[in-house]
Design a protein that fits this description.
single chain, Penicillin V Acylase, Chain A, 7-stranded antiparallel beta sheet, 5 helices
């Protein structure tokens, strides 16, 4: 997952709102959003990496949330262990945050950002294995973490809340959604339009991550399409938590998760595909 904006307790009517794009090689085997079960029996809603078995963004039926991005650097490598397991280890609910960090070897993984939450306990935190001040430097590798307070955050392939143009665009769209009256339906189309944005930024405002400038430019739009490299935005997701008073969850919370997958089919160009949409609903 390479672009995420999320709002924690920024609106009483919607205490959690997430919009995210996952960028990946187009031939990497992937299962789209669905319900599946972790080895310990925990049920989760997430996409799944079919090569290594983990996920980049998911939620559990018990109210845990995990979001993952990599950190861009000149050296491409995933490390000895899959970063996706960090998300599933949190989602299975067997470890506290402190225990997860204690058991985590930062040198075993490629550069990562991990954001976790426990909705019912109002706990949110971030961890990464790159220095937030110099995230694109390969060394030294260490573990950095902090608790997250209520607010709106952006995350791409640097440190949390690094103000990359595409992160700022998506954060702005999230804020505009939350500014709507509580009695109005959440304007999801505003978020999908922001996720589908293919506008690249001028070269003079590109971040310097060490990759060639032409690649940096190609990665600067929220929706990435680099078919000549076999790479691009594979899926887009919007998750919202809003009040629910149904029989399934009296006076509880309704979790709506929608994912759009964007795989070139039958010779069509790689682009936003509104037809390939999957939806799941949980009650917390």
């Amino acid at each position: 997952m390479c672009l995420i904006a999320f709002a924690i307790d920024a609106s009483p009517a919607c205490p959690l709102l997430i919009a995210a794009n996952r960028d990946e090689f187009l031939d990497r085997p992937t299962a789209p959003l669905h319900r599946w079960t972790l080895p310990d029996g925990t049920s989760v809603v997430a996409g799944r990496d079919l090569r290594d078995g983990g996920t980049w963004l998911g939620v559990s039926e018990t109210g845990r949330v995990a979001m993952l991005t990599n950190v861009r650097s000149v050296q491409i490598g995933s490390g000895q262990r899959s970063r996706g397991e960090l998300a599933t280890r949190w989602l299975d609910g067997g470890l506290s945050w402190e225990a997860l960090l204690d058991d985590l070897d930062p040198a075993a993984y490629g550069g990562f950002n991990l954001v976790v939450g426990d909705f019912h306990n109002q706990f949110w935190a971030w961890a990464g294995n790159r220095d937030p001040e110099r995230p694109h430097d390969e060394h030294p590798i260490g573990l950095h973490s902090r608790r997250l307070e209520a607010g709106v955050y952006g995350l791409s392939n640097a440190a949390l809340d690094t103000p990359w143009p595409k992160s700022e665009r998506l954060k702005q769209a999230l804020c505009e959604c939350l500014a709507q009256p509580a009695s109005s339906p959440l304007p999801i189309t505003r978020l999908t339009a922001a996720l589908a944005d293919t506008r690249r930024v001028p070269t003079h405002v590109l971040p310097d991550t060490g990759v060639p400038p032409e690649l940096e430019h190609g990665l600067s739009s929220p929706f990435v399409s680099l078919p000549e490299r076999g790479y691009g935005t594979r899926s887009s997701l919007v998750l919202s938590v809003q009040t629910s008073e149904t029989r399934a969850a009296p006076a509880g919370w309704r979790v709506a998760v929608d994912e759009w997958t964007h795989i070139p089919v039958d010779g069509h160009a790689h682009a936003w595909n509104p037809q390939h949409r999957r939806s799941e609903t949980l009650f917390w």
